Structures are given as structure tokens and as C-alpha cells.
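User: I'll paste a sequence; please echo it back and then give the predicted structure.

Assistant: Echoing your sequence first, then the prediction.
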Amino acid sequence: MRKFVLATVIISVAALAVSCGREKPSTLDGQSTLTIYAVDTSGVSGDEWMPIAEAMIRIHSTTHEYKAVFLTDDEGRVVVENIPAGRYMIQAEKSNEEENILILGQMEKRIVYEPAALDTVFMKYITASPLVLNEVYYCGCSQSSFYFFDQFIELYNSSEDTLYLDGYIMCRGTQITGMVDFEEVDYAMGYYVYAFPGERGVTKNCPIPPQGFLVLAGDALDHRHATYRPRCINLENADWEFFNSLKHDYDNPYVPNLEPITTWGVDFTYNLAHAALWLATGEEYNFEYHWDGNKDQLYCHVPLWTIVDGVEYSSNPDSEKYLTIRIDAGLGGNGMAKYSAQSIERRFPGLDSNNSTFDFEIISPTPGYQH
């Protein structure tokens, strides 16, 4: 079950770490000193604003190769010297695992050449989970053969404990809008739903270790050899495979299966341009019919309180959403072309602001590890 956690902080960069920077072949116009304060604006402490000491600040450039991690000082401040001009995603966090509290904030900032700059970001309550969808590869690898069967989802456990996925369900939402107002109902509507074996809280057959990744493959085979195209993905060593025993679906006998609790479709596939995916505990769901414009179609209602993490992506940033903003407020993968052999991955592993526009970047696929 997802737990509500406090997020309020302010973000930024500064002084206490070694940054890394490899420039892409583009011109960086000047350098600046950037100061940002991390501030709790929730009022929980009794003060209207409270500086956050020892908050972890993560910085990622969207215009050149730069990633860095810093810690705020006792005044909630970080100072970054000689930061190149460009656009940056900045995220601040501080967690208390014993109390399951996370204070989180984020911003996008453009830095132009000037001697010094200062900024602050004010945040809000969010939801968080140690278990997230960390990477999604969906767009296909070969337009000449319309090949997209090398799709995969990567899960990540950011906690210090082994987690067990027995009985959990992986879902793909409907791709038809207008059937229900997703902001007015307390469920997400699944079209494909596949389950991990076992019973939640009883069996322990489906572990994901601390800081561990799990790769869920559509078909667990080496798709490079299957297609004779090197851009396709080798998934023969995936951790799990979606397998529909009722259809003519490929099954790698050496990879354990997630099996369908929905009866339509051959396999767990998702759209090459726009889809919503989520992981839920599987402890509650039901089926209901909805008119899809042509017929009554049976869909799986998954209560929002059971959803651990959800991601929605779209090549078009102006697309109408398939998933409530209570699960994902944005759309990842903006501008990604079909059959480009690219995936979306979290900018920082495990960090989830419930806004995929901010959280994800487009990369070459890296199943099982962070690039």
C-alpha cells in the first residue's frame, strides 16, 4: 500500500560534493555560482519556513552531460561554483526511514551567464513508495519490420530491505478516453493485468533486494538474434516474463512468469507512443463493463490505494491523460519517436515525485541497471 509522506522543500545546489560533467558536443556559454536554499514550508515545525540541513540535492542537466549530488549545510544552503550555463532539473530530498517520512522538492532552472544566482522552490505533500517503475522501454527497435516485442519494464527497490512481490499485479490502462472521468473515481482502469505468483504477505517467492532492479520482459529472449538487428534488446536474462499460457505466446522456460488475470490479448504489450502502466499490491480489484465506443468491454478496476507506483508516457506532451494525476501528474517520453530504440528512465534511481515529465529522461535502454 502507498504511504503518504510530507514533501515541502526547496532545492538546489551547492557545496559538499564532487560534481561530474562531460560536455556533449555543444557550446556552453559561461559559468556561474548558484545558491539555493532548501526550506520546509509545511509549518509542521511551528515556523512558517524552516531550513533543511543535510538535505541531498541532485542536479541533472538537460542540455549537456552533467550530474551531481550535494548536501545542504546547517542553514539549508548549497553553493555550486562554476556551474555551466544551461537547463537543469534539480531535486532535493531528506528521508527518515524509521518514520517513513520523505521531504521532497524539485524545480527546473535555466542558468545563464551571471556572476551569481539565488533561487528557492516551495513544495507540497506527495505520495512515495520504495518500489517504483524505474525504466520503461516501449517504442520498438525496428520500423522496417515493425518490431516492438522487446518491450520491458524495470522495477527498482530504493529501500534497505528485501521486498516481496508475491500476489502483486502489473497493469496497463485503457487507451480510450471519455469512458469515465479518472479524476472523479477512486480506481484506475486496467486493460491488461498480469500477476506475480504467490499470496501477498504469506509466500515469499518473488523477492527484490535492497537497491535492486527487476526486469519484466514481454518476451525473455535475445531480440537482436531474433530479428538480426543490433538495436533490439537482449532480454534472455530478464528476471520475469509476461506469459499468456492460453495463447500462442513465447515462453522462456528458464525465466519465471507473470500470468494474466485478464483474458484478452496475447501478451502484455503497451502502445508505442502513449500508455499508462502501474504496479499494485493486488489485494483488491474487481471487473466491470464499460462501453468503448463499439462494444461493452470488461475492464479491471484497481483501487488507487493499492497502487504502489504508476507511470504515464506520451510522445505528445499535450495528450489527454489516461491515468489520474493523483498517481502521475505528468507525461514522460515527450518527443520520443516510434522505433527509435530508446527508453525512458528516472533521472535518479528510485526518486519519484509523481510527475513523469520531471522524473524521466530519454536514454538508450539499460535493463537491470542505471545508466
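The CA atoms of residues 87 and 110 lie 4 Å apart. Residues 131-363 form a domain with the Immunoglobulin-like fold (CATH 2.60.40.1260).
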